[in-house]
Amino acid sequence: MFTKKKFFQASILAVFSIFFASPLFASEADLVIPVLSAAQNHLLMIGFLICFAGMGFGLYEYFNVKKLPAHKSMLDISEIIFQTCKTYLVQQGKLLIVLEVFIGACIVYYFGVLQHMTTSDVLIILAWSVVGILGSYGVAWFGIRMNTLANSRMAFASLEGKPIKLLNIPLSSGMSIGVLLVCVELIMMLVILVFMPRDVAGASFIGFAIGESLGASALRICGGIFTKIADIGSDLMKIVFTIKEDDPRNPGVIADCTGDNAGDSVGPTADGFETYGVTGVALISFIVLAVFPLYQAELLVWIFVMRVLMIITSIGSYFINKAVSTAVMGDKEKVNFEASLTSLVWITSIISIIVTFLVSKWQLGHLPNNLWFTLSVIISCGTLAAALIPELVKVFTSSKSAHCLEVVTAAREGGPSLDILSGFVAGNFSAFWIGISIAALMFAAYYTSTFGLSNFMEYSSVFAFGLVAFGFLGMGPVTIAVDSYGPVTDNAQSIYELSLIETIPNVENEIEKEFGFKPRMDVAKHYLEENDSCGNTFKATAKPVLIGTAVVGATTMIFSLILLLRKALGIQPEMILNLLNPYTLLGFLCGGAVVYWFTGASTQAVTTGAYRAVQYIKKNINLDDEASLSASTENSKEVVKICTQYAQKGMFNIFLAIFSFTLAFAFFSAPVSGPESASFFISYLISIAVFGLFQAIFMANAGGCWDNAKKVVEVDLKEKGTPLHAAAVIGDTVGDPFKDTSSVALNPIIKFTTLFGILAMEMAIAPGMRDTAGIIGIVFFLVAVVFVWRSFYAMRIPVDK
After folding, report:
1. DSSP string, 36-76
2. Phi/psi class of residue 459: alpha, beta or left (left: φ > 0; alpha: ψ in -120 to 50)?
């Protein structure tokens, strides 16, 4: 019988077996960054100045938003939300420390024990992993502070009845976050490139990427679980008690507002930070491993110059779009909020493509075969995708789209059942069209790479795919800005209701006297709800861009691992990427299985947590006529506590399972009797990326469609409290974990698995490990299965007996 004691002993044996392994022949330690010339270093120093100027812009927008006026009743609510968010983030910080212990141990063992690097070098790499985590964590703090300032200012601005202000406030907030995020990430990577010793710089990039990926994964998953527990708990009360949206008497509303920031601000901000860093590290790794030495330094500098210039193009596009929007909208009372955000995306895309060609000509124009033109076309495929994909997403999620209206029509006759089925249709169709579009643009990039790119590197098509991911991020600050637009609009609507502004005695005269305008309460809520629908749409548009970047970027990182295997074991890439190898198919199957388990585990955490939240709210909500018009602070805090508890419990199970699966499958791939088994882990990583891409697109867009179908019923049809509204709310609650938990968390999971997988695989193929690799793999696999079991059976809703 396999008792707990024997299981523990086997685990200890596995760990000791790892630590007594022999060193590798090739590794991240071989990612030696080339020495840069004085002129190249000078150019990168100018990059530092641009990044600091970009941070100045972010802080300038921050203080601009902060000084905007708002009524005290609204400021008080936004401060409560911020304080609750602070408590949540502090708890997340403690969890990150625990998770870093696992990753830090692997880094110390790998570089210190296997690679025999000096203690000082190992500490440098470990420090960069901590810097990566702190980067993700730090920008999440800034994002949550920015959004909780903007939400009350926007709620108050709605009383003026000027839609242009309701556009500018969340967009200024989003640009502040997007630009500062990219600048901070670039400064950190420039420090590694310029100032770190050449022999440790490559490993520092890997450590930094693993750290930021770990931070983003934890914050994305926890935030996604937290926000949807609160959202479902709050929304279902509208049906159970027939109360209005964001009714102040509902203890779940404050938790919902906190969740909007935890899930839609903290998670995406950390995710965006990690996405730009990891994509850069993937390209750096490939350049060092596959580009011919003569061209490595020039391509590295070119990559960083392009990354720095996207700060300038994004800020410039923002001001151009702001001027155009102001001229077009003016003082109009009926506007299309989506049109302005759409124009911002396209203006930035066009300017970015133009700048790509100009800068590439400047930097690489002296190289043969018109290399500058080839690379510019490839990057432009990615930049075009970043503008085209949001247009496709809107076809399936916008409140004005045929798919969204189909959900409403189906729900009117068929109730929640047909509402949900129609949303499934939208999600599946969106996965087809977006998948085909990404494939077409990647084919265009591959075809372009055949025009002489192989004269500069091996496997040029893989580099082309990496540049497509780079192009996806060519307008990074704007992508983050439109994603951050949503949580501000969502919170503003809640703050308006929670402030009870309409019930405050003599408030109209007070506002007119103190702020100089007569409040228009007749249109304020309508504008907020309409803009919230726009925010939902553009939150949905950013998700496929980030997940697409993760998948395309992971392709480059996976191929870097393949090249390392060739260097260490002499296994040719053609042998690994071979469908005639049975291990290839086995890896594909295991990758798909893990993606579907992850989807179920993250949704299970939401389901059980929402059950607890609904149970508590139903028992404690007070709707008596004599009762207070707002919920008690104690009850609201208890709902937040429930959300936090299940978010962290779910995240811990998921992380340890992913961590253990990565180690287990890497050790199963160790070549014991032949090189064929090395294909297993590579195929597993590719499968995670491909299955994850389509699962994420389907879930994100189905959820977005259900969400905006509810908005159509509430805003356009004004049928709150009807059976149609109840059906739409139920559909929205089904879509909540689809769009904001499972789908979005697949992005950092793909990148973390790939990055940590490089370390895991190289530990597994160490010469001294091969005889025991199978046993160690089994032990880690059993550990993973334990946490898979816990992710359902330890999280399930208790059955009343």
Report:
1. PPHHHHHHHHHHHHHHHHHHHHHHHHHHHHHTS---HHHHH
2. left
CA atoms within 13 Å, Cβ hemisphere of 159: 25
- Give SS3 for 630: coil
pLDDT over 90 at 783, yes or no: yes
First to last CA, the chain: 31
For residues 382 and 397, give the distance between their C-alpha atoms in angstroms, rounded to a whole number: 22
Are 144 and 266 in contact by the 8 Å Cβ rule? The answer is yes
**Read out DSSP for 704-772?**
HHHHHHHHIIIIIS--TTSHHHHHHHHHHHHHHHIIIIIHHHHHHHHHHHHHHHHHHHHHHTSGGGTTT
Place of tokens 């265009």: 444
Positions of E strands within 568-650:
none
Task: Name residue 291's beta-bridge partners.
Answer: 457
- Separation of alpha carbons 19 and 128, rounded Å: 23
Q: Residue 479 in contact with residue 542, Cβ under 8 Å?
A: yes
- Beta-carbon count within 10 A of 500 CB: 15
Report the percent of the chain where pLDDT is more than 90: 72
Residue-wise pLDDT for 454-506, tens only, equals 999 999 999 999 999 899 888 889 999 999 999 999 999 999 999 999 999 99
Give this prediction's pTM: 0.91
Cα distances (angstroms) measured from residue 488 to each of 437, 491, 532, 712: 31, 5, 8, 20
Q: What are the respective helix, strand and coil percentages of the chain, to the nearest 5? A: 85, 0, 15
pLDDT of 527 reads 93
- Is residue 207 within 8 Å of residue 107, measured between CB atoms? yes
Please write the tens of the pLDDT for every residue from 53-81. Answer: 999 999 999 999 999 999 999 999 999 99
Whether residue 98 contacts residue 224, with contact meaning beta carbons closer than 8 Å, is answered with no
Distance from C-alpha of 619 to C-alpha of 57, rounded to nearest angstrom: 48
Q: If you average pLDDT over residues 95-111, what whole number do you get?
A: 90
CA distance linking residue 256 with residue 259, whole number of Å: 5
Determine the Cα–Cα distance for residues 438 and 449; give it in Å rounded to an integer.
16
pLDDT at 622: 87
Write out pLDDT tens, residues 599-629: 999 999 999 999 999 999 999 998 887 778 7
